Amino acid sequence: MESVDFHTAKALLDWQIELGVDECIGDVPVNRYELPDKLAKPQRAEAKPHLTRGPVAEEQRDPVAEAAPAAQAATTLEELRAAMEAFDLCDLKRGARNMVFSDGIAGAPVMIVGEAPGREEDRLGLPFVGAAGQLLDKMFSAIGMGRTQADAPIYITNTLPWRPPQNRDPKPEEIAMMKPFLLRHIELADPKVLVIMGNWACAALLGKRGITRLRGAWTQAADRPALPMCHPAYLLRTPEAKRDAWADLLMVKAAVSG
Fold it and tell me: So what's the pLDDT on residue 51?
């Protein structure tokens, strides 16, 4: 095939434009032999029905809208636990061994809200039982409090009740759908103060992150005083932050004693 020089190619393109060729590819094939009023119009694809899991389509269900009334219907912690176990819109449930609900003594003046279960928590079904949990127990023991100490108890739960795969960070939609249960949990446990441990707990209850900036200052969450603190897992990685954690613990003790 002989090559075409620039000027010849440009002249051929100009000639085609003059003939009305201004679109290389159309949306639909066009039969040029048909009369204009018989040209086929593009057909809109028919919507395919959604796959369903039961009578209601999964795509049409609003997890937050379903979680809120289910949480509010619970009048005791036992009923709340049952409602959470029955909630089937959080995919984390399908990959977890156990639901992690709480530990400690319900009605304690201090309620600790952590982030999400890790491997040991998932295995045992209890919050803060790994290395971070052991440090947590030592921290509160240092101010005379503990999860089994009847005269100065603490109560512990997590933002998410099921372990994220490979301990990944929680997703915003997971936090949002489980938040109604968390808020109801706090209402039913009715602590005097909240200790919000870690960035994801702050994201759930305060709508913000940045724990090293937030810690050490009292705020409000779930209609009660709340103190953000660094998560014990962070303290294990950053021992120099333990000094600030000790100052936070003294603030918690003063708030409970006052």
Answer: 46
Residue 250 lies in a domain: yes
pTM surpassing 0.90?
no
Determine what percent of the chain is predicted with pLDDT higher than 70. 78
Q: Domain containing 236: what range? A: 63-257
Number of compact structural domains in the chain: 1
In a domain, 246, yes or no: yes
Is 130 among the domain residues?
yes
Residue 115 has pLDDT above 90, yes or no: yes
Q: Give the model confidence (pLDDT) of 186-238 as tens digits.
A: 999 999 999 999 999 999 999 999 999 999 999 999 999 999 999 999 999 99
Half-sphere exposure of 32 (CA within 13 A, CB side): 2
Pair 102, 77: CB distance under 8 Å: yes
Ramachandran sector of residue 144 (left: φ over 0; alpha: ψ -120 to 50; beta: rest): left
Residue 16 lies inside a defined structural domain of this protein: no
Are 238 and 215 in contact by the 8 Å Cβ rule? The answer is no
CATH number at residue 114: 3.40.470.10
